[in-house]
Design a protein that fits this description.
D-Maltodextrin-Binding Protein, domain 2, eight-stranded mixed β-sheet, three-stranded parallel β-sheet, 17 helices, binds pentane-1,5-diamine
Amino acid sequence: MKHLPLATLIAAALAAPLASAETLNVYNWSDYIAEDTIEKFTAATGIEVNYDVYDSNEVLEAKMLAGNSGYDVVVPTSDFLQRQIAAGAYQPLDKSKLGNLGNMDADLMEGLAGYDEGNAHAVIYMWGTTGIGYNVDMIQERLGDDAPTDSWSLVFDPAVAAKLADCGISVLDAPTELLPAAMNYLGLDPRSTEKADFEAGADLLMAVRPYIRYFHSSQYISDLANGDVCVSVGWSGDIFQARDRADEADNGVAVTYVIPKEGALQWFDTMAIPVDAPNPDAAHKFIDFVMDAQITADITNYVWYANGNAASMPLVDEEITSDPGIFPTDAAKQNLWASKVYNARQDRTVTRLWTKVKTGQ
Ligand code: N2P
């Protein structure tokens, strides 16, 4: 050792902590975070982040139930969260590490407690609705002034959908959201778990299947923005992002989001820590960081989704807080429904029917 120059020893000493730099593995929905959130977290904590994305609860669930995903923080929707908690997929949060918990909206967290007793495993990240985005001019050209733009008829009425097939209808690849929407349109309870009701919903989807261009849960953002599809059953914030992209591209495409008058699913996405997370301590730091009022406001201002953080609200752009597509009016709220948790048998029925709908057979 005594022959090594001092500079070498210093370099070695400095390199050691770098080599073992702490890392955090985050798995979140695509198009669901501000551009600088991760950068800011690393700057604040020194923790490096590997950030992966998905666009389907089913994909996340398969990883959570298989175990050993390697992820420290994931973002399941409330109904999936409940089923995964029951399967032992998540660890209880250590609330002593979550100093910003007081920022959360007490009413919304109480709503989430219906899926996670005592809010033991998760906090709300963002919430939104599953409705319809459309290209204003393309719809007007094909359906005129009487276009049912405030209704699920836009996609569920075969006579209407047939007229939009040429400009392109896309639908989320999300069976637990689409079947209930179809059931609701038929006047059935969207939260029903009766096999006959699921089948009726699937039959309705089969009737418009010839006019659906594709089933996908993230592609529609750019397709709507570019005018490559004219109607998308999609998630509120994603449609607003499409509108924003079109505005920025100044391409003459006008996109609008609507919560149809018949009603829509209101969902909550949550941050949770897998039971086998490699770095639960960093996971708590990340969740607490996101619960900072400014950080959450920055995310909402970028992704156009409402959040569960009451303290962030004064920091959210007025353009967002005043938009009824993001914060529904009291009248619209009457027609929103919450996700229903399906048991394994109901889930199999839904999966089987969905395969049928997608393949059109
Ligand atoms: C973001 C997707 C929103 C989440 N692209 C749907 N639960």
